[in-house]
Records
---
Amino acid sequence: DQQVKQNSPSLSVQEGRISILNCDYTNSMFDYFLWYKKYPAEGPTFLISISSIKDKNEDGRFTVFLNKSAKHLSLHIVPSQPGDSAVYFCAGPANAGGTSYGKLTFGQGTILTVHP
Amino acid sequence: EPEVTQTPSHQVTQMGQEVILRCVPISNHLYFYWYRQILGQKVEFLVSFYNNEISEKSEIFDDQFSVERPDGSNFTLKIRSTKLEDSAMYFCASRPTTGDYGYTFGSGTRLTVV
């Protein structure tokens, strides 16, 4: 089964600078990864995805990079805004090799704080 | 924008009591899920539901748990006899098709077992 790990529990950046959130995974067999953002007392909100056939996906201020040889992905937020302050989770299919019925496994989350 | 709706937002129950958490997934979605997050821990998968039956469940989802889609819109999670360790945020999620990454999560129900 797939495991995803976010080794940085927190990140603090200045408004306008770049935020880089990191995620490592264990199993080379996957179809996609997802990044979610979560505010207190709310459910995770989908941010951006990346499929296994790409190494980059961009959506506005958010870009996800995938390094398959290192089993590593990162989320870049440029420029960071105070409203981006939240917990960020990476998630991927829990079952090796594919989608199954879509069971996801989540990282531990990284708390991003963007200071004005 | 379509939403996944969960009720109640907060439920307090006594240990040993039954609780039912309710969810209304997005109407054209076919896959439904329950996840939970114990305070300070990861979001963890409980169960997936497709075509009116459980398609996969985790080791957490034991005989005390059940899910139901009683009509065309609701999707419920029942815990028969709650334990203190069931206290968590419970999230319902839905997804249109296998090929769509667009999981949508509800805002969650905070279950507190006392």
Note: Chain A has a mean pLDDT of 91.
---
Amino acid sequence: GAVVSQHPSRVICKSGTSVKIECRSLDFQATTMFWYRQFPKQSLMLMATSNEGSKATYEQGVEKDKFLINHASLTLSTLTVTSAHPEDSSFYICSARAGGGITDTQYFGPGTRLTVL
Amino acid sequence: EDQVTQSPEALRLQEGESSSLNCSYTVSGLRGLFWYRQDPGKGPEFLFTLYSAGEEKEKERLKATLTKKESFLHITAPKPEDSATYLCAVRYGNKLVFGAGTILRVKS
């Protein structure tokens, strides 16, 4: 149980284009999903917290107009990187929180490797 | 400032050589400490959650323990397939704050 999928797993795009990444919780409902970014040999950095049916909460320094997050249902959140540039190239990972209250756990997707040329 | 610090940064073991990874944290009111395993190019895989000092969890060759200021991930008789980056995270409010991770390499 507690499986999270991401699509696509890899994407290469030209500078200036937009890229959408989907995150799905396959066997549970997730009122909260999270988007992380990970640079090579570094740990995960939280970008934003996404709550179903409401606006995402972005971490300090993350441009909300560049990284658009939509959490339209209890099993799907999307991250759109708008007008992507080479510096946006990174490994993007989503997670979904299962359970509630003090015993909840975040389960992670397999990640999406974005390369902007 | 709330922080999560993992040590060592990297650890090389021979197959069968047991050892421990450390995760120390500073937080007021711990609401959960999490261990994850991450393989290269993949998302973190959940291992354990610990909530209170003295708590222990086990899974195969791994055992996680928790004190008031740190957690240990003990690896008993590791195998090459245990090679991965092990991440520790602490829940602060609604979020997880991750340590930098320990890269474990187990040689046969």
Note: Chain B touches chain A at residues 31-32, 34, 36, 41-46, 49, 51, 87, 94-101 (CB under 8 Å).
---
Amino acid sequence: DAKTTQPNSMESNEEEPVHLPCNHSTISGTDYIHWYRQLPSQGPEYVIHGLTSNVNNRMASLAIAEDRKSSTLILHRATLRDAAVYYCILRGPQGGSEKLVFGKGTKLTVNP
Amino acid sequence: KAGVTQTPRYLIKTRGQQVTLSCSPISGHRSVSWYQQTPGQGLQFLFEYFSETQRNKGNFPGRFSGRQFSNSRSEMNVSTLELGDSALYLCASSLEAAFFSGNTIYFGEGSWLTVV
């Protein structure tokens, strides 16, 4: 299964942009890159996903490298409510039996 | 639109007992997946049901089972509970098969199970 690598933790200040990196050097051509986040005591929440092109939605932006071996989740103005663990995951058909793999994620701390 | 609803939210069971957890997916969603989350192992896939059929299964012992009803609601059961089964059990739903690349899956808030 294609794996992702993320920093264990990152810190940001409120109102500043945050760039959360993810490496996925073994990504296949059919894998989508998905980002989820999990706030304390809650289930994971969908943030954004993309295949090749950069994507924007009301929560964040996703910048995908041209070779697709890495991506960056961008929170344009961090708020205290953005403090969470962020997961970068790959989803795609793999041998007919796909398993969603969540790594350790990046714990984002937002300072007031 | 109501989200994924899981019941109960919290429960305590004794080793050796069994437990049944319930999940109501988002209206119109036909796929329901279950996950176990623990601090040490992170989020691990249990199984996925789609149109009442189990489509995929993770690497868990046979004590873990599930089913899906015709209204897409799902239950998972754990028999002969062990201390190590203490975890947050998450249910997620999606419109079509959960592992189709572009589909978004939506998680519930989870059921916290403590085995004593």
Note: The two ends of chain B are 37 Å apart (CA to CA).
